[in-house]
Specification:
4-stranded antiparallel β-sheet, Archaeosine Trna-guanine Transglycosylase, Chain: A, domain 4
Amino acid sequence: MKFVANDAEVKRPGIVAVEDGIEEGQLVAVVEETHGKPLAIGTALLSTEAMRAAPGGKAVRTLHWVGDKEWTRE
């Protein structure tokens, strides 16, 4: 969680669930598992099937995350 909140890309080993129907290049939400709170918005680097099959590597390119200037903008 702390890495995502500091502009890190989301790597496959950190993903515990992937929704059906995600396509490469699609905007996705990165949600914290325990409380279901959004942590970041990013671009999927892999489809649902590819994320589920990948043993490692980058899965989501983070665009905005909790605490960045756009996330907290009013």
